[in-house]
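wait is this the right file?? whatever heres the structure
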């Protein structure tokens, strides 16, 4: 987590956040919605509501949590790399759903947006991270047992 404060790493995280906002806008457009991008801000051309994706809302922190859990788990490096890649992709896909849902919630009901942003999704993204790790650990244990039995 301390590495996330290093200026070079922070610049990479900012670029990743910009890509995340661009992908979010593309998903919204793909499904017929409208969204404008300005840096890390996603705004509605219809009513002007805007969501700024800050560090901490880009799934980088929970990715580090997932990587840490996978790296310390007693498994082979091949399984660890697979878990990190697949888990990170899944986690960022879920975070994309999070941002899209917040974008639309904010346009229609500010109190629901505040609740979902501050409480619901904040907890769910951590639970999702733990569930991804748990699922990966179960798969690794099964493959080890299967290899030992066969």
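ok assuming it is, sequence goes like this
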């Amino acid at each position: 987590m301390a590495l996330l404060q290093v200026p070079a790493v922070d610049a990479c995280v900012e670029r990743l956040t910009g890509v995340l906002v661009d992908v979010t806008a593309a998903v919204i457009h793909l499904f017929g919605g409208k969204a404008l991008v300005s840096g890390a801000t996603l705004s509605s051309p219809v009513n002007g509501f805007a969501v700024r994706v800050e560090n901490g809302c880009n799934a980088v922190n929970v990715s580090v949590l997932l990587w840490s859990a996978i790296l310390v788990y007693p498994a082979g490096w091949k399984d660890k790399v697979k878990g990190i890649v697949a888990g990170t992709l899944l986690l960022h896909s879920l975070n994309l759903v999070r941002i899209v849902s917040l974008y639309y919630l904010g346009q229609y009901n500010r109190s629901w947006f505040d609740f979902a942003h501050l409480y619901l999704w904040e907890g769910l993204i951590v639970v999702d991270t733990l569930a991804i790790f748990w699922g990966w650990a179960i798969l690794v244990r099964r493959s080890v047992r299967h290899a030992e039995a066969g």
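The mean pLDDT is 92. so i think its the right one actually
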